[in-house]
Amino acid sequence: MSNKEISDNEYEGHVKLLAKRLHEANKLAGQQSKLSHETAKRYYDRHTKLELFSKGDFVCEHDHTHKRSMAKKFSYQYRRPFEVERRFPRRSVPHAWQMGLVQ
Predict the structure, then answer these.
(1) 2 to each of 5, 13, 14, how far by Cα in Å?
(2) Distance CA 80, CA 62 (A)
(3) Which pTM does this prediction carry?
(4) Would you say 54 and 60 are in contact if contact means Cβ atoms under 8 Å apart?
(5) How many angstroms separate the CA atoms of 66 and 25, rounded?
(6) What is the mean pLDDT of the chain?
(7) How far apart are CA 23 and CA 28, in angstroms?
(8) What is the pLDDT at residue 2?
(9) How many CA atoms lie within 13 A of 24 on its CB side?
(10) What are phi and psi of 102, to 5 degrees?
């Protein structure tokens, strides 16, 4: 029997050890992911302010499109002012297709 050959018992033990280590690594990665998520949420919540608009207020819509022929820094970032027609309760804003704006 050479050094490279291992018995079935040693092989089984090695596989079980690797499976255990993999499970522990997966658990640790899950914990780190949860910590990272909580940290990012705290940062986002700290740096975000809630804007409440009433009917009749004028707001500018952010324009995400820009023309390729023009540098992004020179294009308009906001569209013309729009008047708020109605206000929805918090966390219940309908999608555009529900309002009939998109088919």
Answers:
(1) 6, 19, 18
(2) 9
(3) 0.46
(4) no
(5) 45
(6) 80
(7) 9
(8) 46
(9) 6
(10) -125, 140
Q: How many Å apart are CA 32 and CA 26, to the nearest integer?
A: 10
Q: Which position has the token pair 């705290």?
A: 42
In the chain, the largest separation of any two C-alpha atoms, in whole Å, equals 88
Q: How far apart are CA 19 and CA 43, in angstroms?
A: 36
The Cα 91–Cα 41 span in angstroms is 17
DSSP bridge pairs for 37: none
What per-residue confidence (pLDDT) applies to 15? 93
- How far, in Å, CA of 15 to CA of 9, rounded? 10
Closest CA to 51 of 36, 39, 61, 66: 61
The 8-class DSSP code of residue 73 comes to G
Cα 69-72-76 angle, rounded to 5 deg? 100
Which pLDDT tens digit goes with each residue over 26-61?
Answer: 999 999 999 999 999 999 888 888 777 888 889 888
Average pLDDT over every residue of 79-83: 84
Amino acid at site 43 = Y
